[in-house]
Design a protein that fits this description.
Elements lengths: L23 H10 L2 H4 L19 H26 L6 H9 L1 H10 L10 H13 L1 H4 L5 H8 L3 H10 L14 H5 L28 H10 L4 E4 L2 E3 L5 H22 L5 H14 L4 H9 L4 H26 L1 H6 L6 H7 L2 H15 L2 H26 L7 H7 L13 H13 L3 H11 L9
Protein name: DNTP triphosphohydrolase
Pfam families: HD_assoc
GO molecular function, one term: dGTPase activity
Length: 451
């Protein structure tokens, strides 16, 4: 890929560039911060149930921290590119890599989770499972590729839709972000029918059929390497690796800190795992341990070690990106930056094993996943059958159900696929509390007038 041609200030909605004190990529960051989709992340589960008496991360605080890490990664790599490839770069490109790559990665990290439904990954599973379990009643209503979108639903593809789709009555181009920022969150730049386990850029899929033309414009605008056109498959954009690394660094480490605060894991286990990782990087472990002696508060000790670990992982990700830079540009890297490091580092492997055993399979986490799955499944079951019925065949209960759908999610003149996506937009955009509250009301568990 040509380093001068993998970024652009072109936006969805085809809005002309404006002269302002902020760059186009800083404007992306600000637009995301002020968007309702981003604000709703404050009440979407990261791992642990919300709310609680002990503060833990939600999707919004997670995204802010990922953005902070991503800005660091982007700034350092931007300087690396500007310095080591300056003879290949135009003046505009030098300016971009020196001053704006950090903004792009920060903005992309900020919105990388906006397509995720309530209740974490169980919300995604519920949406996909709803269509899978109702295949006999629903599949015939959709084209093959449309059906693949539904039975493989997941948040990465939905993020592109949330950010780029024009809802009923709203402005063209969605959030109107630059193609550069949008390409940077496309971890799986292919159609759903092309997803394939074991291939890093095809593990899942990156866009719905409804947003296919928009994604093709994005791919053209940033010159993604095309692997296939039926179905469409592209190689990852080079910036994706930095966004992914920032996300991997944060959830691998911060979930441990949250579990410690909740008393799910012991102070000694958490400290020892973090210390082992710090020591594996040949950091001055004596200096770190001496610092710990001066800190008596357990939470503060873990916070200090967490900061040291994140810094170490940022440095390793930068090193890995530089080492594999040509392979990344060619679109041939087959493993995430943190995965490459994990393969050769037993300390990080132990953190992952411990997290799976003690955190992700903890009773409280499993309970919220089960509850969330059922809530999301039942909400879809309340709306999908009614929205897919022809208008003249709808019974009174169908009409009553559809009165609960906000106007921007209703596509009466659209295809069955578009009507279904409208319902998914509504349900997947809900916060944990709103989804639970609506579920209890439509099931008759809570009856009474509330606003």
């Amino acid at each position: 890929m040509n380093l001068n041609q993998i970024f652009t200030s072109q936006r969805t909605g085809n809005n002309p560039n404006t002269t302002a004190s902020r760059t186009d990529f800083q404007r992306d960051f600000d637009r995301i911060i002020f968007s309702s989709a981003f604000r709703r992340l404050q009440n979407k589960t990261q791992v642990f149930p919300l709310p609680g008496s002990v503060f833990v991360h939600n999707r919004l605080t997670h995204s802010l921290e990922v953005s902070s890490v991503g800005r660091s990664l982007g700034s350092v790599i931007g300087e690396f590119i500007a310095e080591n490839f300056k003879s290949d770069l135009t003046e505009d490109s030098k300016n971009f890599y020196n001053h704006n790559l950090g903004n792009v990665i920060a903005a992309a990290c900020l919105c990388h989770d906006v397509g995720n439904p309530a209740f974490g990954h169980s919300g995604e599973d519920a949406i996909a499972s709803y269509f899978d379990k109702n295949e006999n009643d629903l599949k015939f209503k959709f084209l093959e590729k449309e059906w693949a979108d539904l039975v493989n639903f997941e948040g990465n593809a939905n993020a592109i839709r949330v950010l780029a789709h024009q809802q009923q009555g709203k402005d063209f181009g969605g959030a109107q972000l630059t193609f550069t920022t949008l390409a940077s969150i496309a971890k799986y730049p292919c159609e759903a029918v092309a997803k394939k386990k074991g291939i890093v850029h095809r593990k899942k899929f990156g866009f719905f059929q409804n947003e296919k033309e928009t994604f093709l414009e994005i791919a053209k605008g940033v010159n993604l390497i095309q692997e296939n056109d039926e179905p469409y498959i592209f190689k990852r954009h080079p910036f994706v690796w930095l966004v992914e690394a920032a996300d991997d660094i944060c959830y691998n480490i911060i979930d441990m800190e949250d579990a410690h605060r909740l008393g799910i894991i012991s102070n000694s286990d958490c400290e020892n795992l973090f210390l082992d990782l710090i020591e594996s990087e040949n950091q001055d472990i004596k200096k770190v341990k001496d610092k710990l002696v001066a800190i008596s508060n357990d939470n503060e000790r873990v916070s200090y070690l967490r900061a040291k670990v994140i810094n170490a992982l940022i440095n390793k990700s930068i090193e890995s990106f530089k080492t594999n830079f040509n392979t990344i540009l060619e679109g041939n890297l087959d493993k995430g930056l943190l995965d490459i490091y994990r393969d050769g580092n037993k300390a990080l492997q132990e953190i992952e094993k411990y997290s799976i055993a003690k955190i992700y399979n903890h009773k409280a986490v499993v309970e919220i996943e089960n509850a969330g799955y059922n809530v999301m499944y039942e909400l879809l079951d309340h709306f999908i059958p009614s929205v897919l019925k022809p208008k003249d065949e709808r019974k009174s209960y169908d009409k009553m159900a559809l009165k609960l759908l906000p106007q921007q999610f209703i596509y009466e003149e659209g295809s069955d696929y578009q009507k279904t996506l409208g319902v998914i937009d509504f349900v997947s955009g809900m916060t944990d509390n709103y989804a639970t509250d609506l579920y209890r009301k439509i099931k008759g568990i809570d009856i009474g007038m509330t606003m």
